[in-house]
Amino acid sequence: MTLGELAERIGAELVGAEGSAATLVTGVAGIETAGPTEVTFVANPKYAAMAKKTGAAAVIVEPGFGQIEVPTLRVKNPYLAWSRTIEVFHPAPKYAPGVHATAVVAATAVLGARAHVGAYVVIGEGCVVGDDAVLLPHVVLYDGVRVGDRFLAHAHAVVRERCVLGDDVVLQNGAVIGADGFGFAKDDAGNWQKIVQAGPAVIESEVEVQANACVDRASVGETRVMRGAKIDNLVQVGHGCVVGENTLLCAQVGLAGSTTVGKNAILAGQVGTAGHQTLGDGVVAMGQTGVHGDIPAGSMIGGSPSMDYKLWLRMTAALRRLPELVKSRGVKE
């Protein structure tokens, strides 16, 4: 593929020496290692200086990026354009329609057109699977599950009974949708008795749940992950939670039962919430934040218990100086 063809594919303006549109490119690489037939990108200003020294065939940059020796592909969103460039050279695998001989598909299940059902897949009674769905080896759909068009489930993903998934949902390896929520009540003898988890988990369209993450079913009502949300590895979404549209839950986030997270929120790694609380639209919680109350929309928070992010930074800086302060005041340790 030539640089000119690539520019057209990703909607970028090619800026470079005359004839650069005919330069052949064969792949992508990081800015430090890219060679003369590879494309790289700069989205973070701190890497701008490296673009001047790169050996790449071209660099994807924003429109206002300064002139450099190598050609540039200028586009409003360089990071998204970089993603599309990777797809050009590393297209997703294609799976032929059909049902593997070792798969077990209930007689009452309905498979959409061109579905791919891999080895040792189990599809339970009354399931409905949309068009162009791909279920890779050892995926299990319990009875009554409904999944939409272009569903993609990687090996060992599990969807429990009566859960509903929309179109273009991706489950990475080991994701579990609709396992029992953590609900127990003590009897008169002091023993824990299980509370039946009767409500399904509902995953709306364009959601991705990554490896070994769990979205639990509810005791009553439902657990819902709304359109476009992305759930990272090892995340726990407790029973009865609601995750808003286009919200990101990063690695090891834990939402206790009945937590509501608004749309376009970002919960960074290892954020934890107490149950029955609401985080508003656009909330950003920094890594390891412990959230113990309702958080207004648009807030940026950190620390445990959570507080305004700037206050948390100041407190953290002050904490580092405490040993010197104690020493200067002559306080014995």
What would the keywords be for this entry?
4 helices; UDP N-Acetylglucosamine Acyltransferase, domain 1; 3 domains; 333 residues; 13% helix; Udp-n-acetylmuramoylalanyl-d-glutamate--2,6- Diaminopimelate Ligase, Chain: A, domain 1; single chain; 38 strands; alpha/beta; ten-stranded parallel sheet
Write up what this structure looks like.
The strands form five sheets. The chain has a twelve-stranded mixed sheet with strand order 6-9-12-15-18-23-26-29-32-35-37-38, with helices on one face. It is built from four helices and 38 strands. It folds into three domains: 3-89, 3-Layer(aba) Sandwich (Udp-n-acetylmuramoylalanyl-d-glutamate--2,6- Diaminopimelate Ligase, Chain: A, domain 1); 96-228, Hexapeptide repeat proteins (UDP N-Acetylglucosamine Acyltransferase, domain 1), CATH 2.160.10.10; 244-333, Hexapeptide repeat proteins (UDP N-Acetylglucosamine Acyltransferase, domain 1, 3 Solenoid), CATH 2.160.10. It is flat, with a radius of gyration of 25 Å. With 333 residues, the protein is α/β, with parallel strands linked by helices. The longest helix has 20 residues, at 309-328. The chain starts with a helix and ends in a 5-residue tail after the last helix.
